[in-house]
């Protein structure tokens, strides 16, 4: 029997590793014993990439690297490690060399762009009372409330950090588009996916938090990458 590869999960802006909770449970149920969810500081792409690389290097054997939202930029930068066998993007940024998440967002502004609010320390938040409709409109209100109150804000400057050598140019990729996404424009997701020429692209009728609203379908795509 073939041993399943490790799966390393990378969160995005406005959340932490626990955003992957339902996907973790689903993958564990399917027999994935080596599951890892990095907790990134969201202080710069360089910091987050370094933290993610350190986690990958602690894992024995092949690794499927999965990124949600801004986590896609992190796996794009960190995914060049030899043991990374595939990259899975979940409603995620997939910048090319010299591109930043902020630049990509400005090209096609998402519906909830105006619901972001900077604080006096330079961190960028989603307004709590707008979090449900902005980030997770397909989740129950109470679940979205917890996400809103526990959100992990990035330093606003991180939006401008650019990718140097995109790993998707040399590694197999898979992409999940969220068709009702209000944080990354769905057409931006489709454009980024198409230029990667992924092994598979799936489109879900989901908001930005598809990893929480449709964990089974997300796990299906991760499992496909693990088998590939």
Total of helices: 9
N to C succession of SSEs: EHEHEHEHEEHHEHEHH
Largest sheet: 6 strands, parallel
End-to-end CA span: 15 Å
Mean pLDDT: 97
Specify the overall morphology.
globular
The counted number of beta strands is 8
**Percent of residues in beta strands?**
15-25%
> Low-confidence spans: pLDDT under 50, at least 5 residues?
none
Global Rg:
16 Å
Helix content: 25-40%
What strand line-up does the widest sheet have? 2-1-3-4-7-8
Find the structural class using helix and strand composition: alpha/beta
Characterise the protein shown here:
The protein is of the alpha/beta class and 228 residues long. 35% of the residues lie in helices and 17% in strands. It is built from 9 helices and 8 strands. The strands form 2 sheets. It has a 6-stranded parallel sheet with strand order 2-1-3-4-7-8, with helices on both faces. Strands 5-6 form a two-stranded antiparallel sheet. Strand 5 and strand 6 (124-126) form a beta hairpin. Helix 2 crosses helix 3 (71-78). The protein starts with 5 loop residues before the first strand and ends with a helix. The mean pLDDT is 97.
Summarize the structure.
With 228 residues, the protein is an alpha/beta fold. Helix content is 35%, strand content 17%.
What is the topology?
Layout: E1 6-10, H1 21-29, E2 35-38, H2 45-57, E3 63-68, H3 71-78, E4 84-90, H4 101-107, E5 116-118, E6 124-126, H5 131-135, H6 141-149, E7 173-178, H7 186-196, E8 200-204, H8 210-213, H9 215-227
Parallel strand pairs: 1-2, 1-3, 3-4, 4-7, 7-8
Antiparallel strand pairs: 5-6
């Amino acid at each position: 029997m073939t041993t399943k590869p490790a799966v390393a999960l990378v969160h995005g802006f406005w959340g932490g590793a626990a955003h992957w909770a339902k996907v973790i449970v689903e993958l564990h149920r399917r027999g994935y014993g080596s599951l890892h969810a990095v907790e990134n500081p969201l202080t710069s792409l360089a910091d987050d990439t370094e933290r993610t690389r350190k986690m990958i290097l602690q894992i024995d054997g092949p690794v499927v690297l999965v990124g949600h939202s801004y986590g896609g930029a992190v796996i794009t930068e960190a995914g060049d490690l030899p043991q990374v066998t595939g990259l899975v993007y979940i409603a995620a940024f997939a910048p090319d060399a010299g591109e930043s998440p902020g630049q990509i967002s400005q090209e096609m502004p998402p519906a909830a762009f105006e619901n972001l609010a900077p604080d006096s320390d330079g961190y960028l938040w989603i307004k709590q009372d707008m979090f449900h409709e902005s980030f997770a409109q397909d989740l129950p209100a109470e679940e979205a409330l917890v996400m809103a109150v526990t959100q992990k804000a990035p330093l606003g400057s991180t939006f401008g950090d650019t990718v140097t050598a995109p790993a998707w140019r040399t590694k197999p990729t898979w992409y999940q588009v969220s068709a009702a996404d209000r944080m990354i424009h769905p057409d931006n997701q489709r454009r980024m996916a198409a230029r990667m020429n992924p092994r598979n692209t799936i489109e879900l009728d989901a908001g930005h938090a598809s990893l929480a609203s449709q964990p089974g379908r997300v796990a299906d795509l991760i499992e496909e990458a693990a088998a590939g």
